[in-house]
Amino acid sequence: MSYQVYLKELQSDARQRAREARLANLPLKPISDNNDDGESSQKLGQWQDDLMELVEQGKAAIGRVVDIALIPFHAAISKPARKAYVGTFLVILTSVFLFGLSTLAYVLFYYNFVPPVSVERTIHLQFGDGPPHGTANLGSALTSAQPYHVSLFLHLPRTPNNLAAGNFMLDLSLLSSPKSSPTAVTSPLNSRKALAKSRRPAILTYASPIIDTASTLTGLPWYVIGWKTESEVLQIPMFEGVEFAKGAQNIPQEARVVVEADQKMQFYEVGIRVIAKFGGLRFVSLLLSPIPIGARERKIMEDIT
Q1: SS (H, E, C) the chain
Q2: What is the pLDDT, as a whole number, of residue 50?
């Protein structure tokens, strides 16, 4: 083999190894012209060793990257983290339990300490045995040491008898339970004891014949379709700021009304309305209460405060 042919083979072998080195991303070392096949094999083995070393270094680098990526996960499942989880869960559970307990205690306190804003009862009048009279059961709606405004409302038709009656008297008695206070005044109308008693006059609104006729003519369409009736609602205050002493025997359980008139009267409806006038802690509890109250009760509370 001539020298030129041998040189071409070495150059071809060098180019092949250069391509393999580029594929393996390895640095090349110059090959002397006097290298033989043994030296080439030794170089190739060295390159293979370098390639394996690079592969191992890559694996080690990938392992380090994975370890770094798993550091938050290892921290999240570590023993101190598990203790923190258990402690947080117990704190949340205890907070929820205490919140529920305090809410229940407040609701019980509210319904036992703060009475209803207003109480309304219908009174069914009885006729035929003396003047019209009737009673209404108040139950446990009222409480002691609490001022109340008490009024009667009467829905009366504007009949000739009612207009001719003029002024008539309303007699209201707030009666205790059968086991009443021995110091209470005996009501002549009931075997129970009258804890409070009031008499107030009432009268329908006067209208002259001309005004009455004009009002009827102008409202005739509404009378025909039933949107308006020839009646009037009277609201008569009977007590202002009445209070009751402590003790179940001093709390009214029943209200009795007697209508005293010179003429025989007609009634559509008669009822009693009791409105609590709050003050002090009860007023604050009602204002700050998360328990919703009706718009009507809130309006009543604003009117009397």
Answers
A1: CCHHHHHHHHHHHHHHHHHHHHHHCCCCCCCCCCCCHHHHHHHHHHHHHHHHHHHHHHHHHHHHHHHHHCHHHHHHCCHHHHHHHHHHHHHHHHHHHHHHHHHHHHHHHHHHHCCCCEEEEEECCECCCCCCEEEEECCCCCCCCCCEEEEEEEEEECCHHHHHHCCEEEEEEEECCCCCCCCCEECCCCCCEEEEEEEEEECCCCCCHHHHHHHHHHCHHHHHHCCCCCEEEEEEEEEEEECCCCCHHHCCCEEEEEEECCCCCCCCEEEEEEEECCCCHHHHHHHCCCCCCCHHHHHHHHHHC
A2: 67
